[in-house]
């Protein structure tokens, strides 16, 4: 009997005990390529059984939903796998069956989430092959894309919590704090090659012999950092393996124009030849011989080699050779035998330098299975924004859209279909998106640059120098602002209020509801002499049956009072105005009538509104869904310089805590951050000396 402890965030842990017997029949010797097998367990303490989890009545916590997963999925092989090292004891047939079991398991749980399950499903065979060939966690496997990692998490003793991305559940991304099998934490993508190269160089300097494998997909590879990392890897010539998990079947930047890389018997044979030790040694020997003959012969031979390999590989494959990576591919990402053979050969080379293995996967393999699994969402802020923007674009032919980020919100397809020539999606090239928008503005167009808050951080230098310093009229639409529920700290929009409102020429605003959002779209369309930004949260709008009206421009720097009260003024910014209204309702039941105001603008601040609130109340509470240094700091700066703090007014800010809030439901995260209506009301009661009532309210 063995045991293991599975740790979770927020101090919750689960301990599991069970028996396990190693399987010795049908081992990897049945594979077509030789593999050196080590049957020694990497961790003697790894004996928690999945079978015990399977036999229990499983409750599957789902992101963004309170429903439960009642369907029982039979997974006998998966139930027997406790560590990835045990994959080496399986036959090819069993590996294929295991892939199907993982696919069914993921489908049974992930289909209810708002996230696409395609990347995880497409990467199942690749994940199995990686853990089959390499010796994680001794070997380092780095994952670039967040949504590719569920199969990896299933195989690394986190099956019971998959895909719980609520409070106390596992993270939606890889995290070293969560598992020793996660060599590096995944963020927004495109960091795996850079981090992997760092691990490879550190390994060489310390005289170690572990392997480094970085997995990147066709979305995250569009980011500039990936090419910077590959260029540096080619220069340093450290041994590392880059896996390009390509679900587009094309290396062409425009998928519609690029020719697809076909997977055939010939490409399979050529990939095996390219990865073989004999071929690599022959190639290196040929290089050495031509160098001795002379520089001209060497350069001629290099061109012949590049041309020949370019004919074998798909369009764009020679780019990686130019960067200094040895290209192998394309390889069928759903053929476990081919994957294992190629990866094993690459892993066996003692001195290979950086290698890129181009793996072709198919995201739509389970499309038919999922057709009946579509969940209709409520109307969101994104829906209202796009409808309002379409209305403005109908009136103004200069309005264009530039989108950057990992995923496009489905609502944006409405604009793309209506104005295909005025819609530009640059994927994860946020820096380019910002400067591209500045160029569009210089050319007389009105760009709306749509970037999620957390992704805008990657382009801040361009926002400063290419937009704000030059007063370019770029309209930044900051989506997923504030807390983002199941996506936790990775996509949390905590910092944009601070870093955008600190810029000298930037107009920063945030809508309190869908009406204000529509009006701010119209306002942004009218601004032509400076940059402007507005943020709105992820999630449903206030009024479910809302019909988008024609937007009316708002006077720049003018807030509004929603409810007149006494003693305490609640000044909310953006979506937190709704929580201030909730706090007002709670306090009114206790006989306390407070003022509620909507700031609308962080910059320029409505100083008249703030001054009036200070002069007519004893307490001012500012509320924002952002970090320290944002809206509340602008208010504090003004009331300090205006002398208001020298009078009777007492000011209290409510902001996000100085830390990263892990995955949870939106309500759980708001409660943890102290931003609920109850927290705001309790703060007001405490300021008034009604501490007992504040404690009762929070209980």
Automatic annotation (TrEMBL):
The record, for CDD domains, names: TPP_DXS, TPP_PYR_DXS_TK_like
| Pfam families assigned to the protein according to its UniProt record, in alphabetical order | DXP_synthase_N, Transket_pyr, Transketolase_C
Q: Under the GO molecular function aspect, what terms does this record hold? A: 1-deoxy-D-xylulose-5-phosphate synthase activity; metal ion binding
Gene3D superfamilies from the entry?
Answer: 3.40.50.920, 3.40.50.970
Top-level lineage group: Eukaryota
**GO BP term (any one):** isoprenoid biosynthetic process
Q: Which UniProt keywords apply?
A: Isoprene biosynthesis, Magnesium, Metal-binding, Thiamine biosynthesis, Thiamine pyrophosphate, Transferase
The UniProt record lists the Transketolase-like pyrimidine-binding domain at 379-544
Q: Membrane-spanning residues where?
A: none
Identify the EC number(s): 2.2.1.7
Q: Which cofactors does it use?
A: Mg(2+); thiamine diphosphate
Which pathway does it take part in? Metabolic intermediate biosynthesis; 1-deoxy-D-xylulose 5-phosphate biosynthesis; 1-deoxy-D-xylulose 5-phosphate from D-glyceraldehyde 3-phosphate and pyruvate: step 1/1
UniProt-listed NCBIfam families: dxs
Which family does the entry's similarity section mention?
Answer: Belongs to the transketolase family. DXPS subfamily.
| Subunit relationships | Homodimer.
Name of the protein this chain belongs to:
1-deoxy-D-xylulose-5-phosphate synthase
Q: Which organism is it from?
A: Cardamine amara subsp. amara
Q: What is the lineage of its organism?
A: Eukaryota, Viridiplantae, Streptophyta, Embryophyta, Tracheophyta
